[in-house]
Fold each of these.
Amino acid sequence: MTVVRLLRNPAAVALAAIVVGAVIMDVWAVRVVVSDTGQVWNGGQVTEEALAAFRLVQFANAVPEPATLVGVLALLGVIVIGAVTNRAGRPGADVSAARAR
Amino acid sequence: MSQTTDRAGIDPRFDPRFQRGYVPDAAEAPEPDDETPVSASAGAPAAMAPGRVEPDASAAASASARASVLVPTPAPAPPRSSADLPATSAREPVATSSRVAPDDRGATPFPRAVTDEPAVDDQLSAMFEETDDEPSPTDPWFLAAWAVATVAVVVGGALWWAGIMAEDPFGGARPSDRWLQYVGWVVAPALVQGGLVGIVAMLVWTGVRWARRHREPS
């Protein structure tokens, strides 16, 4: 029940999308960096393709750090929103009533 | 004020034996006929007002000398309601719980606690109440925070990408592009990360507000 109400929360859905996107970016960046053969440094002819591959590797090198950070924070945010949703959904859960106790 | 400092500092409304400046001999002296009995004027019980205050000349002189030292305590104002009290400090609600209430004679011999705990509780709860509707998502400051986070991500990403594009592994960077590479390596990642973290934080806050507002009826 809490998950259903969590899925109705637009912000929680956006955070979940950020988590999924961060995971995808991490996997892609790692695959690009690992699959780099480094042919541009092997004395081959400098072409536009080789230069584009070099820049792509440069970009992929910088992606995992912010993507992992944001993904973890977004996951924590989803958990926090889930906790609030679960607390708000309990029978008789009211902020003023809880404070009165 | 003049009634409270009647004759040699003796307050006629209270038992003179417990007041400063009281002289036992003067209390036992006869009084004139026009003197109003203390018990009748103040309405105090007879046991609390055994006699009248009529000091002789020497006693009056010494008593007046002592009375000049005494500072009469003014009667405090009627108790205020808790709504009138300014909530400027955390200790003030504690002080309101022991406010002074005048007795039936209009005198306030000492502060007396009045049980008004529900009013204090209301004031404290209003002070620390978790206002869920503040600030609003359409608040200009909130929108400005969104804008700053978005601009940080966009500018950081642009600098980042410009630094990558300015890098030439074969010919080296031109002197005019070195500042761009440095900014792209140092400033751009921080801008992007800060903006993304800000966006995530505001999404979390928005989601928490949404969850509180859309709680199911109990």
Amino acid sequence: MKRTFLFSFLAGIALTVAVAALFPLPRHERFVSQIESLTNGGRGEEFQIRWPQDRLGLDSDSTRTQMGETAGLVVMPGDVSGPAAVELFRLRDVQGNVIGLASRLTAPMPGRRGGMQSVSNWTLAIPSRGSLLLTQENGADMGPVNRGGSWVAAADAPGFWATGSRYRISAGPAPGGRGRVIDGSGEFAGLSGDYSEVWELEELGTDQRSEGLIRLSTLTTRAR
Amino acid sequence: MRLIIAVVGLVCGCLASSAFLLAGGPGLLQARIGLAVDEPSELLVDQVISRGIAEHPAALLGLAASQGGGFSDPGLRHARIGIVRLDSAEAGASALAIKISAPATDNSLLNGRLYMQSTWNMAWPGHGSVFLTGRDNHLPLLANLSWNLVNGDGFKLSERPHPLSEKARLLGAGGRLLAAEGIYREYVSPPGAGKLELGLGNN
């Protein structure tokens, strides 16, 4: 009897271990990284976002919040300093593969020369690789615009594209008016460097709805 | 009689090894590093929007479908975003924050690893912003769910805050928080409300 119990007990353990070892946990599909090796030992990688098709719709789950949600934009009105806004996009590599998610959090922050400065923080999350964290001062106010009581993204505001069809948004704090790569997680852990954010307009409708491409070009080295 | 004993032995073996794995498996035998948070600021999480997989152990096992559109691409199928407002009695002002999570690439039930790799970005308009990153350990939540199921309370979490974050730290900051360094700990409390303890200091 004891032997029967012992053998079946061990069989139970073996069965559980087999199930735990063979259970198909979710795995992320990984695309080949489009990284360019630089002569200074660093690396360059460009990420792209096509708008409006890569913009993710953000309808509120909550009726308690006092935030404004419109297509692809969540706005927290804030106090005298101005509103904060989150936009969310699918992130692509230079070959156009969707490799992750990108969030852009824009808010007014104390500037280097006093006063308030429009600042954007990017989180580039690639599930199979990790996250890369970027921050920049914006060359123009990139915060949301209140049009007729509802919020619209800066790129869809009237007059935004009046002076050109290609804008570099980054204006510091890194030298050359580039944004700063703060750090990362996973494969990107310990990286630092700089980047530039460039918007390229491809089409502008009569209702101010625009189509185009955002290029995030990063130059990084391993800091530690 | 022998058959009954064999079945009882098999069930006991399954239960004993499941309990071992849910308690952390081989990781139980390694030293644990505690997260010390001295007098942290308590931020209440007001969930505004969530998309992708649920913040639930079942989602990490691939047993829950994604919510919302835009997550059908192979590279995003198991990702999650949450946009929240963080309220604090101490800070006075609210922060707007976004959390992006995905199952860790080294998850293994056999080794007692069931993590979500998470990145937070939060901003207090006119003041400053912080980037945080950490690993959310869902194994204790799965153990709690399993225990409640065995007890006949259903497959749901106990009504108390459950600590979530491990190896959670501040990676960078901006504005008036530029020189800040610190750590954080996130708690989930059913039914969906949570809180975040953020301990900041200057370096």
